[in-house]
Amino acid sequence: xxxxxxxxxxxxxxxxxxxxxxxxxxxxxxxxxxxxxxxxxxxxxxxxxxxxxxxxxxxxxxxxxxxxxxxxxxxxxxxxxxxxxxxxxxxxxxxxxxxxxxxxxxxxxxxxxxxxxxxxxxxxxxxxxxxxxxxxxxxxxxxxxxxxxxxxxxxxxxxxxxxxxxxxxxxxxxxxxxxxxxxxxxxxxxxxxxxxxxxxxxxxxxxxxxxxxxxxxxxxxxxxxxxxxxxxxxxxxxxxxxxxxxxxxxxxxxxxxxxxxxxxxxxxxxxxxxxxxxxxxxxxxxxxxxxxxxxxxxxxxxxxxxxxxxx
Length: 311
What we know:
By secondary structure, this protein is an alpha/beta fold. Helices cover about 40% and strands about 20% of the residues. It contains 11 helices and 11 strands. The longest helix is centred in the N-terminal third of the chain and has 28 residues, at about 60-85. Mean pLDDT is about 85; it is low at about 300-310.
């Protein structure tokens, strides 16, 4: 009995077909049939019953399949652990991101990871919050940075808050509201708003907060890039709600005031699929990214320190 025989049994059982198992394993149907016959002869049992329409496990075959799954799982674990112990991380790291990430320097974290593990190919995409979560569910991504509250994600995901900052209202320099210490939602609802596309998590967060008070924003301009938002505000065409780190960046002249009296915040969470056995590259990145988040918290720059949790 060889590992290839166990992989063949698992593939045939999964597909219920010799042909489809052959397609998965890149083998001819005749080769699949030959492997199964030889294994049955060696074990002295029948693993599958065959008919013109289906291939099904026998009672003995179900026992063999159970052991096959356990052996293959242990072999995969051995390979991963040997790879980690040898320090030869390689393969791909697939990340998703949604900006801004505040003072959590995501680009620097990725650069640090690349320096430590130059053999790993890093791929990163920027998508909306829902798209990132869907990609995590299907294992298209290993991890994602997105604006969610970790406690609200449910059991499918594990997550850690890596940074949280306040929203501020960006105003033209001579706008009357610059006389206020803070801007209320009622005041905000009376102003033309420069905002973001409909599926933007930043826009949805503001609209949800206003809706609790029976208010709606008066969206006058819709943009997809924060530089454009800032430029329109600077020219007096409206006000905008931005994370403080973005409003404080260099750019066209604006001023800003906090939302109040209750703060509105923008979270950045690192999210991954909870029950997934992470490949070595993903596991190493999660450890590094979470450690960097803890360091950010100790520096006093993050509102809430994250919980270090790696699956």
